[in-house]
Amino acid sequence: MAGYGAQTGSPKPGDIPNAGEGVKSAASLCKDGNYYSELTTKDLEWTIAATASTETQTFYCINDEGNFGHVQLIHSNLGIWGAPASVQMTARFRGNGISKFFSVNLTNFTLSADKRSASTNLMSITMSPDGQKFTIQVTNPPDLIVSLTFERTTKGYKIGEGKSFFGDGYVSHKFWPACKVSGMIIVEGKAQDMTGEGTFVHAIQGMRPHLVASKWSYVDFRGKNTETNNKAKLSLIQFTTPEYYGSATVTQGSLVFDGQLFGVAVDNKTEAVTTEFDEETGYNPPTEVNYVWEGKAIEGGKPFKAVLNVKPKGLCQKVDLLAEIPWALRKIVSTFVAKPIIYQWYDEASVVITIGDVEHKLAGHVYHEATFVM
Questions:
Q1: What range does the record give for the signal peptide (predicted)?
Q2: Helix (H), strand (E) counts: the chain
């Protein structure tokens, strides 16, 4: 298999606290292979650490028409005395002949008393009192208006305690892997009905972002078998640490089958079957890729495997990461990284899911990202 190409940075001595300790992934800290932990509402509280950190809440939706949208709130703290925190929103809609990406700096970030809801001058995320749904509002006229509800339809999860440790820092991911989505996104003055299914991810990088990984992958798939009426959702986050953290791969994902969280997976792969050199960026993004999940059922321990084959053709955007982060953080990151790029695609795809000895073939749509950091 071909690999994703990557450039390399040369961090200065002393900039990587306790890097020699390597990475202790959330999965490696689990006992007896019990990787699944059910989320509580407390798990979804904003932490807003005083030290260097980036915290995000991201809502991904594939609607019933096969269109895609996402909305993300980002809070970044440099951990440097006197340097203000920055708050940002990103959003995307792709479908019905429209492909638009938005990145907007925000002000007046405020948390609710319970730290489970957040508001800014242009965006709010509100958790319901019962902790079962989020309401997302964005008012950035005339470019973008969002009014969405994400209601959890199966268990939320984290792997073990939800944190992978990097010396003095950590990374955390917590998921609602399946949500019922209602509401709309208004782009270019046109209202897009987003009724469909979604995924919610609360992520924290408790360290400066350029120290976490040299490569990232994110996958969000929704599909069905029209003959058997089986439905599936697959989500995956995977990253490879820089050399000073041992070039370790940290991966976690889940399978939602026929509406229920069937299992979580920590033995996953992102296999680039073929790649092509991109002269614009200097990287080698995939032209065909297999995303592979391997895990066990939460109930009963039955093994499952999913292989999602994608030939990326629906390029949404190549996002220049340095152009999308605050100036002060950009100065720090650019010292180590030449040109970090996120490739974002939205494609048709097929998956083969094997549960025990039974094989299921499904077709659908996938939003997937490949991020090259160094």
A1: none
A2: 1, 26
Distance CA 201, CA 256 (A): 15
Q: How many CA atoms lie within 13 A of 230 on its CB side?
A: 17
Burial 176-193 (b: 16+ CB within 10 A, else e): bbbbebbbbbbbeeeebe
For residue 177, cis peptide bond before it (omega within 30 degrees of 0): no
Residue 232, classed as helix, strand or coil, is strand
DSSP string, 262-293: EEEESS-EEEEEEE---TTTS---EEEEEEEE
Q: Report whether 179 contacts 60 (CB < 8 A).
A: no
Structure tokens of 298? 């939460």
Is 37 within 8 Å of 163 (Cβ atoms)?
Answer: no
How far apart CA 324 and CA 330 sit, in angstroms, is 9
Query: Which pTM was predicted?
Result: 0.91
- Contact present, 68 and 314 (Cβ < 8 Å): no
Closest CA to 101 of 309, 358, 344, 374: 344
